[in-house]
Amino acid sequence: MLESKESLPLNEEIVKTINRLVSSKQRYKLLSKPNLAANIAKAVFDPALCNGIAIEEVIAESKKWLRKNVFKPSEILKHMDLRGGTLNYEGIKVLNDVEASASDSNQRRMRNRLICTRHA
Predict the structure, then answer these.
(1) CA-closest candidate to residue 68, choices 120, 99, 114
(2) Nearest 5°: CA angle at 108, between 105 and 112?
(3) How many angstroms separate the CA atoms of 96 and 92, rounded?
């Protein structure tokens, strides 16, 4: 009788495989948590991962997380008010321009900005 293999969604299978990998080899088990985390992060952001097919989505997911957890528009406005406008809309525009210049004309990154625009 053949064993039926569990069919997981790809993202869950990737997590399962990485977890199995880092617990399978003694030298990976010996890595400190910060070193292990840094190596995993480097792999996720490596353009060679899946022949480069994943990098844009990795960046998009990272931006979503940062917008939701760090650069919330309400928090930006609150801190602008607390500091008497030292970070004004012109400053935010400059930061958005810097992000846009790093996008290599990728329209998707232009739409999914890390920091909100004043029109958001």
Answers:
(1) 114
(2) 120
(3) 6
